[in-house]
Design goal:
Length: 106
Amino acid sequence: MSGSEGGMSNAQLLQQMALLRWLSSQSEADKNLLAAVTGVQVGRELLNRITGQNKVDAYKRDCILSIAEFIKQKPKASQAQINAEVEKNILIFAARVKALETAPLF
């Protein structure tokens, strides 16, 4: 749930809306809503950190972009050269994902 152009994520926006509502009303219902929204956001972040899924997604994007850049820079590359570049990038991706197993969570 990322925001557009470096802004707040959807989860952050919901949390801020709940906070604003609670600040305006100070009602118990709005306090509970704020607590629930914040709890979901914290839980989601903890899950991402434990699983490393956000990093895996970033590594996958890096892998794909690197292959695309190679093909863009070398449009006349042979199929064997492309295959070698793809294999190299997949090995780098796999090594980065494997390194997550020993990385600290926080």
